[in-house]
Amino acid sequence: KQSGELGAALEVPELMTNHANLTGDKTLLPDARTYTILISTVARKKTNVKEAKNDPIDMKSGSGGEKDPDMAFALLNRMINEGITPNGVTYC
Predict the structure, then answer these.
(1) In angstroms, rounded to a whole number, what is the distance separating the alpha carbons of residues 67 and 86?
(2) CB 65 within 8 A of CB 52
(3) Burial tier of 20 (Cβ tally within 10 Å: 0-12, 13-18, 19+)
(4) First-to-final CA distance of the chain
(5) Counting Cβ atoms within 10 Å, is residue 73 exposed (0-12), middle (13-18) or buried (19+)?
(6) What's phi and psi for 15, nearest 5 deg?
(7) Which of 66, 79, 67 is nearest to 89 (CA)?
(8) What are phi and psi of 42, to 5 degrees?
(9) Nearest alpha-carbon partner for 45 in 66, 73, 72
(10) What is the rounded average pLDDT of the residues 19-31?
């Protein structure tokens, strides 16, 4: 993968979970740091705003508008739903 591939980055939590389940190593599960990095990235990611209007929370494709709060909040909700507690840095 190349830098700038937001879509690939958004797949990382799922890949981490799958690998943790395969190996039985729960330390490989995504944590607050994993989600905080993704949230920070999508909150600042500059992409095609016209494309974002069609699907602002398409997490697999990496589409999203400049400073995409909808996708950031979707990631935050996913994090919380997975039982991961956000920390002070997550909300910055």
Answers:
(1) 20
(2) yes
(3) middle
(4) 28
(5) middle
(6) -65, -40
(7) 79
(8) -70, -25
(9) 66
(10) 97
Separation CA 43–CA 34 (nearest Å): 14
Is 38 within 8 Å of 30 (Cβ atoms)?
no
Give pTM, 2 decimals: 0.72
Res. 27: pLDDT tops 80? yes
Say yes or no to pLDDT of 56 above 50.
no
Handedness of CA 49, 54, 55, 60 (dihedral sign): negative
Q: Say yes or no to pLDDT of 36 above 50.
A: yes
CB distance 38 to 12 below 8 Å: yes
